[in-house]
Recover the amino acids of this structure.
């Protein structure tokens, strides 16, 4: 391993330098990728130096998600202590299904779950696990809801028409999960939202009553804590009252914005969270942990076990169920995603994680203030969100974002809400400062001015 570690360090040093000097990599057209980099698999071994050069080229042409000009996704930046934990998890290569092979790493995962359950108000009755992503977290919540509604379904299947409710602004995983579970995409009801993108609970109850009149079986409501476009937070208390009234499982999908549980200033955005039956959060988003680090929590510990446990004598040979985490997981073999979050949290403390979250909202305020003070911009988003949605000079958002990407200027995406399309600029990298946000707008304006000038010269 010594040679590989030396190679790794050498390549990483060049990557870190490149992130500073060239935050956005040169665009490689997808259809020309294999002509640019030799990605084919060879029959014979490669010479070490040739392999090293190829690997370096591959790394240095990959999009730089930790740079100061990456605003494209709901993740970004790099926390060094978290990276350390991820690298150690790779070296240790434990699977997290049994205590026998996970050892103290099982304790690491349980410590995080227990602390998070305490923070959201589930206490000792709660439990959870680390799925492979936010979509799987939501799938696990839906499965628990189904089994809580009717425990026979997991044994005999269902002839009922089960109904799921989620907002029109929610993540696409809800209808996808309904399809995979055999519930059917057509049995997902999309609830209206207000102008801010928040679910309207009165419309939710209307839909539930309509389904009950038709003889259908409502069983699951999904709320979103941070919608993917506007970053809106659905109201939990009124929805919780409706779910209790009709005996429905309430899940809060906090994959994007659930990190506000660490912030005293912004935790009000998920007020009433303790009333939800389950809650998911991605530490690889607001909390800056490397991909993937997704967590599902539930206040019904026994339901987690009932829905996902399965006897396997060849696997569970020692220790109790509390430390054999495969009994509450969707997966069998499962990498250690907890260690990187633990090394970050343990090293910097809860107070610093709170600062990470608060910094993202501060940067969003900087961006909104800049847009509001410049008449060439149109703002579409609202306070209490780190998704800044806007247009500049009426330029088509899709075209502008694509050009910025292809010209290696800025990595930023676009989105739609209702009838509007706009640039979606996400301030999720807490390593950024005020000057980095202002630099984004300066580069955007400079690029547009340059593009208009070039266009005029071509026309002449």
């Amino acid at each position: 391993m010594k040679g590989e570690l030396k190679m790794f360090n050498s390549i990483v040093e060049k990557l870190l330098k490149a992130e500073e000097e060239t935050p956005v990599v040169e665009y490689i057209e997808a259809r020309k990728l294999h002509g640019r980099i030799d990605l084919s698999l060879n029959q014979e071994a490669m010479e070490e130096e040739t392999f090293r050069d190829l690997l370096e080229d591959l790394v240095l042409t990959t999009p730089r998600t930790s740079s100061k000009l990456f605003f494209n996704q709901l993740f970004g930046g790099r926390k060094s202590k978290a990276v350390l934990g991820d690298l150690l998890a790779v070296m240790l290569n434990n699977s997290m299904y049994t205590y026998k092979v996970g050892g103290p790493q099982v304790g690491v995962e349980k410590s995080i779950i227990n602390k998070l359950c305490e923070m959201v108000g589930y206490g000792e009755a709660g439990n959870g696990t680390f799925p492979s992503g936010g979509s799987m977290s939501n799938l696990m919540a839906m499965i628990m809801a189904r089994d809580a509604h009717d425990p026979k379904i997991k044994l005999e299947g269902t002839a009922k028409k089960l109904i799921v409710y989620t907002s029109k602004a929610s993540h696409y995983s809800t209808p996808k999960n309904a399809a995979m579970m055999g519930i059917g995409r057509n049995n997902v009801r999309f609830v209206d939202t207000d102008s801010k993108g928040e679910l309207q609970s009165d419309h939710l109850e209307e839909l539930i009553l309509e389904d009950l009149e038709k003889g259908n079986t409502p069983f699951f409501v999904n709320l979103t804590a941070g919608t993917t476009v506007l970053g809106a937070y659905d109201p939990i208390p009124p929805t919780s009252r409706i779910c209790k009234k009709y005996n429905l499982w309430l899940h809060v999908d906090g994959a994007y914005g659930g990190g506000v549980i660490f912030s005293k200033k912004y935790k009000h955005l998920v007020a009433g969270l303790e009333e939800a039956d389950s809650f998911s959060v991605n530490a690889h988003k607001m909390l800056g942990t490397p991909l993937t680090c997704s967590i599902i929590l539930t206040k019904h510990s026994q339901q987690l076990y009932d829905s996902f446990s399965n006897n396997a004598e060849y696997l569970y040979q020692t220790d109790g169920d509390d430390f054999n985490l495969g009994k509450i997981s969707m997966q069998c073999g499962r990498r250690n995603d907890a260690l990187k979050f633990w090394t970050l949290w343990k090293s910097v403390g809860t107070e610093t994680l709170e600062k990470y979250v608060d910094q993202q909202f501060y940067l969003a305020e900087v961006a909104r203030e800049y847009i509001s003070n410049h008449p060439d911009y149109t703002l579409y988003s609202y306070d209490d969100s780190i998704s800044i949605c806007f247009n500049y000079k009426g330029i088509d958002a899709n075209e502008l974002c694509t050009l910025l990407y292809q010209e290696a200027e800025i990595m930023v995406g676009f989105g739609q809400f209702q009838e509007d399309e706009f640039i979606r600029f996400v301030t999720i990298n807490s390593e950024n400062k005020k000057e980095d946000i202002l630099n984004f707008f300066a580069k955007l304006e400079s690029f547009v001015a340059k593009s208009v000038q070039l266009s005029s010269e071509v026309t002449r």
Summary: Residues 95-348 form a domain with the Aspartate Aminotransferase; domain 2 fold (CATH 3.40.640.10).
